[in-house]
Each structure stands twice: as structure tokens, then as C-alpha cells.
């Protein structure tokens, strides 16, 4: 498993043999359509997405009216009509990223926090069979099929349960942010997409068609916490991808995380090495989850200020002394606030600074 986490670190050296096979024909899968690897969809090193039956995307509905999740199937209307889904509530999808699953502790924490805050339909998206690949480009390619499958569920909820697209929010971490982008592109009119440190490798500075971008929902926001280049063990992106992009602490090394990147291999062979690696090198990439969950649970507001660049932020040129026009980062953000925003956070819980 540790090797699996290390794979993105060598992705720049990975070259697929696909271009030399002389075949660029699309692959077609039932329900989700056809996929080719011609530009711009060659971003995943010419790797084709795997079929839906291999990825086995699953959807779990949580509401305040049941004690256990209910499984939703985009292709079985009875799972929708027989569930506790209500079109009178906002609907929030949560999507994980690379080498992750809905069994990760943050999923339960975020779901519980949302349901304690508001009456909502919370639907968690598990594509762990497609995310858990030794070769990172395969997982990156699979996001296209997962996005199409998610789009089909949204359409099913529209058709069979009266879902209003404006009430939809998709929260995606890492590769999950781009999955939300694909789904939003396939179903125009979704209310909001929240990208939590959208994955950078194979997506940074690529065509908007292959990554999250502002056209994917009525309001697209992103929180960037690990935007350094992959060569410096950065797993997110610095590039602006939304109507509103937030850069806590400049959007790169988060407080309390930076020192771990100098010791990328020290955890190997030690007890709990996998957890140490994730909490070390991937610390800034995972910190965005802590920040967003805290923005739901806490009464403290993550106040951010507009700023032109990371350099201006680091030099203090974006500091505000009076008459500050703050923008809220996280759960309380407003679609009316657009631009690039910067703020400081703490190095440990609580991360919000009063």
C-alpha cells in the first residue's frame, strides 16, 4: 500500500505504450458512453478508463430520518423511489480521491457534520475499486467513467424523485473534484461544486474539458492547500479552477505540515508507516478536509481577503487593517463572492483564527 501512495511521485516518468499500438479508437460502455484518448483526453498518458463493472461505483444515501445508509442505483428506479430521498431537501454528494474510499474516517465526520447542521440528502460516492490502482494514470482516467455514472444518478433523481438541479452540491476531494466536474458538465445547471484541493498531477494547466472549471456548475469554488509541483511532493494544484478560489496560507505548505516533506522516506519500514506517510507528505493535501469540516462544525468563520497572488499574500500586501471586505471560505461561502482569496489558518485544531 505504501508503494501505491508513492506512485504519484514518479508519475512524471510514466509513459504508456498506448500511442505506439496504433489504435486510438474509443471504448464504449453501456449506460456511460464512449471514451477516447485523443487530445485533450490524452492527459492521463493515453490510458483508457476502465469499464463501469470494474470500477463498481456505489452511492450511499444518508438522511436524518434513518440510522443506516441506503444504496442508490442509477439504473434501478426502485432504489430511488423506495428511499428516504426528498426533493424538499438540498442534496449533497461527497466524492473521494485517489487510493481512498467511503470507509475513510473523514467521510463519516463530514456526513455527520452536514446532517447535524441542516436537513439534507447526503450521498457518498464510493469508487474505491477504480481509485485503488497502482498506476495513478489509470485512476485519473477512471474519473471520466465515475463522473458519467454520477451524472446518471443525478438524472435518475431528477426523473424519479423530482430533484431540482439548483439544490445540488458536489463536494470532491483531489480526483473527486474532477469527477464532480465531469458530472456537472454532463448535467448542466447543478447549483454548486466544491473542489477540495483538486488533484494536480495530469490535470494542472490542462484543457478545461478534462478538469474542474467554472462552467461545470452555477457556482464552482475550490480550496487549494497543496499546490506545489509534484516534484516537491505536491498533490494538489495552484491553478484557478472556479468562480472563487481560496488559498489558505498561500495554497501550498500548510502550517504543521511542511517539515514532513523533507523526510519522505523516513516512515517506510516503521510501525504505522502508511498512516505516517499520509499524515506526512500528504499532510497539506489532506488538511483541506479538516478545514472544510471545521467550517461546517465551528462558529468561527474562515475570513479570506481578495489578493492578486501568493507573492502578494506572503509579502503582507493583502493584509487588512480596517474596512475589510472579507469573504467566507468553506461551508458558508457565498456564490456572489468571486475571485482569488487568501487567508491564514492555524497549525492544529481549531484551524480557524478569530
From TrEMBL:
It is found in: Secreted. InterPro entries: AB_hydrolase_fold, Lipase, Lipase_N, Lipase_panc, TAG_lipase. Keywords: Disulfide bond, Secreted, Signal. Residues 27-351 form the Lipase domain. Residues 1-17 form the signal peptide. GO terms for molecular function: triacylglycerol lipase activity. Its main location: secreted. The keyword Transit peptide does not apply. GO terms for cellular component: extracellular space. GO terms for biological process: lipid catabolic process. Belongs to the AB hydrolase superfamily. Lipase family. PANTHER family: LIPASE, LIPASE DOMAIN-CONTAINING PROTEIN-RELATED. This is Lipase domain-containing protein. It comes from Magallana gigas (Pacific oyster).
Amino acid at each position: 500500500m505504501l508503494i501505491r501512495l508513492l506512485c504519484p511521485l514518479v508519475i512524471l516518468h510514466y509513459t504508456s505504450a498506448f500511442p505506439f499500438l496504433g489504435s486510438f479508437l474509443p471504448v464504449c460502455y453501456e449506460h456511460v458512453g464512449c471514451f477516447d484518448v485523443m487530445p485533450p483526453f490524452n492527459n492521463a498518458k493515453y490510458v483508457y478508463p476502465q469499464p463501469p463493472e470494474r470500477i463498481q461505483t456505489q452511492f450511499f444515501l444518508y438522511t436524518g430520518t434513518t440510522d443506516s445508509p441506503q444504496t442508490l442505483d442509477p439504473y434501478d428506479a426502485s432504489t430511488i423511489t423506495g428511499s428516504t430521498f426528498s426533493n424538499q431537501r438540498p442534496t449533497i454528494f461527497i466524492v473521494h480521491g485517489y487510493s481512498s474510499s467511503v470507509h475513510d474516517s473523514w467521510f463519516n465526520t463530514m456526513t455527520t457534520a452536514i446532517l447535524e447542521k441542516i436537513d439534507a440528502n447526503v450521498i457518498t460516492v464510493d469508487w474505491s475499486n477504480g481509485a485503488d490502482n497502482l498506476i495513478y494514470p489509470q485512476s485519473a482516467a477512471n474519473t471520466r467513467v465515475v463522473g458519467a455514472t454520477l451524472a446518471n444518478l443525478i438524472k435518475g433523481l431528477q426523473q424519479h424523485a423530482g430533484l431540482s438541479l439548483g439544490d445540488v452540491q458536489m463536494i470532491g476531494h483531489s480526483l473527486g473534484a474532477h469527477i464532480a466536474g465531469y458530472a456537472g458538465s454532463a448535467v448542466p445547471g447543478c447549483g454548486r461544486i466544491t473542489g477540495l484541493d483538486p488533484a494536480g498531477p495530469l490535470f494542472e494547466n490542462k484543457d478545461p474539458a478534462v478538469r474542474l472549471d467554472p462552467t461545470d456548475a452555477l457556482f464552482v469554488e475550490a480550496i487549494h492547500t497543496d499546490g506545489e509541483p509534484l516534484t516537491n511532493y505536491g498533490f494538489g494544484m495552484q491553478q484557478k479552477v472556479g468562480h472563487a478560489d481560496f488559498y489558505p496560507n498561500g495554497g501550498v505548505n500548510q502550517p504543521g505540515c511542511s517539515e514532513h516533506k523533507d523526510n519522505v522516506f523516513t516512515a517506510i519500514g516503521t510501525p504505522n508507516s502508511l498512516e505516517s506517510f499520509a499524515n506526512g507528505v500528504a499532510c497539506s493535501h489532506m488538511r483541506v478536509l479538516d478545514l472544510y469540516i471545521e467550517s461546517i462544525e465551528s462558529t468561527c468563520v474562515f475570513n479570506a481577503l481578495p489578493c492578486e497572488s501568493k507573492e502578494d499574500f506572503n509579502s503582507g500586501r493583502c493584509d487588512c487593517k480596517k474596512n475589510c471586505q472579507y469573504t467566507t471560505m468553506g461551508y458558508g461561502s457565498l456564490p456572489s463572492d468571486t475571485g482569488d482569496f487568501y487567508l491564514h489558518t492555524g497549525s492544529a485544531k481549531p484551524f480557524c483564527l478569530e
